[in-house]
Design a protein that fits this description.
Elements lengths: L1 H33 L5 H24 L14 H10 L1 H20 L3 H8 L4 H29 L1 H18 L7 H33 L5 H25 L1
Helix pairs in contact: 1-2, 1-6, 4-9, 6-7, 6-8, 7-8
């Protein structure tokens, strides 16, 4: 029931993301109207400062979280544990997919919000509403794909949603600042995107969890996150230069 469990857990996180995004977007527009003489950078400083405080509070809760004791074999040296994921043929195939996928996604994804704010001249509140729309679809998608993954398997769900996510950026070519696009087409794109990305994010982690051995699975996740992070960072830099 791993799919259903993480689906429910991630849905709860999406709900809080939804609420905080609405508040953040409303605050930025309120600050711009209330203090027109102050630079907008001041509003972001306050927003980021609040995020730091909340992050610190979350650490206090984390300190109270017990960690299960994991037995490790003394002869299993660190160097061997670090090499284990790369010796796994199936996991190497997954890493190759992750390299190209993360690079391609982050080549464009950081600039969608910039495009909406600068080119379409949309308000912060409206952009936050789009984000909330995506979060709502993510909330529903986590629950739905969690059930599907337990029945169809993680790989099948990843293939389906990767196909959908590949098509979505192409549809942004047809966007402009017309009311039809702003109030119908863009929300629809965010709904589809949130729902499909929920399935990908959920099942990619579950697939790594299933492939990793019970002992030493943290090394698999470390390798997975490192490869994804490096590819994503490189993709964003190249996208910015382009």
């Amino acid at each position: 029931i791993r799919g259903r469990y993480f689906g429910l857990r991630n849905s709860a996180l999406s709900l809080f993301t939804l609420l905080s995004t609405i508040l953040g977007g409303y605050y930025l527009d309120w600050f711009k109207t209330k203090f027109p003489d102050l630079p907008m950078t001041r509003s972001f400083e306050i927003l980021f400062g609040l995020a730091v405080v909340l992050g610190g509070i979350s650490i206090l809760f984390l300190l109270k979280q017990p960690e299960p004791v994991v037995e490790t074999k003394p002869e299993n040296h660190l160097r061997e544990r670090l090499k284990a994921p790369l010796k796994d043929n199936n996991f190497r195939k997954l890493l190759r997919f992750a390299v190209f996928w993360s690079f391609g996604v982050n080549f464009a994804s950081p600039f969608f919000i910039v495009y909406m704010l600068q080119d379409l001249q949309l308000s912060y509140t409206l952009v936050s509403i789009y984000t909330v729309t995506s979060a709502m679809a993510d909330l529903i998608g986590m629950w739905a794909w969690g059930h599907f993954s337990d029945q169809l398997g993680n790989r099948a769900v990843i293939i389906i949603n990767s196909f959908i996510a590949t098509i979505l950026p192409f549809l942004w070519i047809f966007t402009d600042a017309s009311p039809y696009i702003v109030f119908l087409f863009l929300p629809l794109l965010h709904l589809i995107g949130g729902f499909s990305w929920a399935g990908y994010n959920l099942c990619s982690v579950n697939l790594v969890l299933r492939m990793a051995p019970k002992e030493g699975n943290s090394v698999y996740f470390a390798t997975w996150n490192t490869v994804n992070g490096m590819s994503a960072g490189l993709g964003a830099v190249v996208g910015g230069l382009a």
